[in-house]
Amino acid sequence: MILLHPALRRSLAFCASAAICASAAFAQGDNGFLRGTGHSDIVLTFNRDSYDEFWVGNDKVSDPAVGKVTRDSYALYAAYGLRDDMDLVFSGSYVKAESDGNAGFEDESDLQDAYLGAKWRFWTNIQDKHGFALLFAPSVKLPMTDYEDNAVTAIGDGQVDLRGRLIAHYQMANGFYAALESGYDVRNGAPKDEVPLNLSVGATFGMVTLTPFYSRVFSQGGPDIGAPGFTFPSVQEEYSRVGLGAYVRIGDGFGLTGMWRTTIDGLNTGDVESFSLGLVVRF
């Protein structure tokens, strides 16, 4: 563990805040399941992200000025089956962030970002719930308010993203499935564009579906934290995270969802650990 030189603390802390600004709505990536014409899912979740160490370049550091940063998100996710082969999706979050470091950074709370998109299954050979499908999932991320985006307790990154994702989905009649999601995210602001990679597998045991997942983000460039001439939030941020999702069916129209994830490696990002709990309503 490395302690930061005091002269770098405030600027490095600002950059580290970007580590957990993103919404948790897509923490484990997406899969190829669709709702069907006229059917909907509504999901209400609570998510907590926290970290007390972060990477400056490839070096993991800590800073008593930053201390432990905690960000709580209250999120709404909705999906509507426009057709049997297409869903419309929406997600939005209200976020509260605080730091217990000795620098006295102010707590922040505000509406964060909205995600609007679609998921279109353009090819499939699934028969009797067994087979393979390909989907296209474009979306846009829009800040919902003029929230704080340049502090340890930043609510988000404050920019518009245009996202184009492809999903390869395989499922079996016994409830097992695997999904690989990737694509390209155009970031209309200081950060460079990103290439995401999300791999998830799921298996159903009675009323419970468990979903281990792996997430990786590749940035298309930018300086390291502390490099000459670097600016916030233009640093090159990358990470690898693993986690486990769970869904428990209570009845035909209700369920409970949960998720845990942790960071296994990073570049100019926080050593984030997260958990979430939520309620799913289907109709």
How would you characterize this protein structure?
There is one protein chain. This protein is an all-beta fold and 283 residues long. It has one domain (2-282): monomeric porin ompg (Porin, Beta Barrel). The protein is built from 1 helix and 15 strands; from the N terminus they run βαββββββββββββββ. It has a 12-stranded antiparallel beta barrel with strand order 2-5-6-7-8-9-10-11-12-13-14-15. Strands 1-4-3 form a 3-stranded mixed sheet, with no helix packed on it. The longest helix has 8 residues, at 9-16. The protein is globular. Mean pLDDT is 88; it is low at 1-25.
Short description:
With 283 residues, the chain is an all-beta fold. It has one helix spanning 9-16; strands spanning 2-3, 40-51, 54-56, 59-62, 69-83, 86-99, 108-124, 131-143, 160-171, 177-188, 194-205, 208-219, 238-249, 254-267, 273-282. The protein has one domain: Beta Barrel (Porin).
Order of strands across the widest beta sheet?
Answer: 2-5-6-7-8-9-10-11-12-13-14-15
**Spatial gap, N to C terminus:** 50 Å
Q: Compute the number of strand runs.
A: 15
Number of domains: 1
Radius of gyration: 19 Å
- CATH top level? Mainly Beta
CATH topology: Porin
Largest sheet: 12 strands, antiparallel, barrel
Query: Average pLDDT value?
Result: 88
Instruction: State the secondary-structure class.
Output: mainly beta
Strand content: over 45%
CATH architectural arrangement = Beta Barrel
Shape: globular
Topology, element by element:
Blueprint: E1 2-3, H1 9-16, E2 40-51, E3 54-56, E4 59-62, E5 69-83, E6 86-99, E7 108-124, E8 131-143, E9 160-171, E10 177-188, E11 194-205, E12 208-219, E13 238-249, E14 254-267, E15 273-282
Parallel strand pairs: 1-4
Antiparallel strand pairs: 2-5, 2-15, 3-4, 5-6, 6-7, 7-8, 8-9, 9-10, 10-11, 11-12, 12-13, 13-14, 14-15
